[in-house]
Amino acid sequence: MIDQFGGTEQLKMQTVATPELKPNQVLVHTKSVSVNPIDCKIRSGAFKKFKLPAILGFDVAGTITAVGADVTDYQVGDAVFAETAKSSTYAEEVAVNVKDLAKKPNEITFNEAAALPMASLTAWQAVIDTIQIRPGEKLFINGGAGGVGQMAIQFAHNAGAYVATTASKTNAALLESLGADEVIDYHTDDFRNRLFDYDAVLDLIGGVSLVTSYQILKPGGRLVSLVGKPDANLAKKYEINASHFSSHTDGKLLGEIGDQVVKGRVRVTISKIFEFSQAGVVAAQTLSESGHADGKIVIQFA
């Protein structure tokens, strides 16, 4: 957990009380968690209003050890996974709202289950619910190698879209295997020279590349950014619909995505697994902040 904002030196192992359950919660004994960029942003102080001290982490997979008074669909011993509404999962015991919870399929591991929640829910809600990608449309995913990008590629491909994305050359084969039709090496090529008249853009990078993304869209196109606030003047200039997007927890949808993994329609890519220790969590967040993880980063508990 962290007592103050800063670098990875602020990450400390501490003993705290077991969470008290509300009637609509279950207590999960953690088997695995995954690291998301927001974990590192919270630790660094990007969200100054975040209350300290705090336990980081939103993704968890494990087994239920206790249930609240109003819980009827889960019981002690169930294997589950979730994205929690409150940062709290870098811990041996986590209280989870039932509405955020899904039963873990037997066919996937706890590490795979922990890698799914925030990345897959964000990708689905952005590509399917917000952009509403349709068969035959062209979608550009700016930044395809991370957890959200890889899920977004698969969901768009399964929806029948033509998918272009940016990544380093070393990740091109992986992204093509997930369903990307075109992978542009951002080190050597400008996507504006390759992509024209696109129906939609999912921006996972922000900055200059968000601004230049407007230029590849056809009039009436849709631009959704997870990391930057779209420019209303540019949207008007290029006659497109641009919006900022934030995801939300959804246990029912998470369960459906888990079923897609079992059926082979969606694949979970884990970049590296670390042990749950102070050194392990530091190393996991360091890798996340480097931007060089080719998939999800998982922390495995003993």
Could you walk me through the main structural features you see in this protein, from its secondary elements to its overall organization?
α4 links the parallel β6 (138-142) and β7 (162-167). This protein has helices spanning 37-44, 110-115, 117-130, 147-158, 172-178, 207-213, 232-238, 251-262, 278-290, and strands at 25-35, 59-67, 79-83, 93-97, 101-103, 138-142, 162-167, 182-185, 198-203, 217-225, 241-244, 270-275, 296-300. It folds into two domains: 8-116 and 268-300, Medium-chain alcohol dehydrogenases, catalytic domain (Quinone Oxidoreductase, Chain A, domain 1); 119-244, 3-Layer(aba) Sandwich (Rossmann fold). Strands 1, 2, 3, 4, 5, 12 and 13 form a seven-stranded mixed beta sheet that branches. A six-stranded parallel beta sheet has the order 8-7-6-9-10-11, with helices on both faces. The longest helix is centred in the middle third of the chain and has 14 residues, at 117-130. By secondary structure, it is an alpha/beta fold.
Rounded mean pLDDT is 96
What's the number of structural domains? 2
Helical residues, percent? 25-40%
Count of individual helical segments: 9
Q: SS-based structural class? A: alpha/beta
Overall geometry: globular
What order do the helices and strands follow? EHEEEEHHEHEHEEHEHEHEHE
State the total count of DSSP E strands: 13
**In percent terms, what proportion of residues is strand?**
25-35%
For the largest beta-sheet, the strand count, sense and barrel status come to: 7 strands, mixed
CATH superfamily of the largest domain: Medium-chain alcohol dehydrogenases, catalytic domain
Mind telling me the C-alpha Rg? 19 Å
Organism: Lactobacillus selangorensis
Protein name: NADPH quinone reductase
Pfam families: ADH_N, ADH_zinc_N_2
GO molecular function: oxidoreductase activity
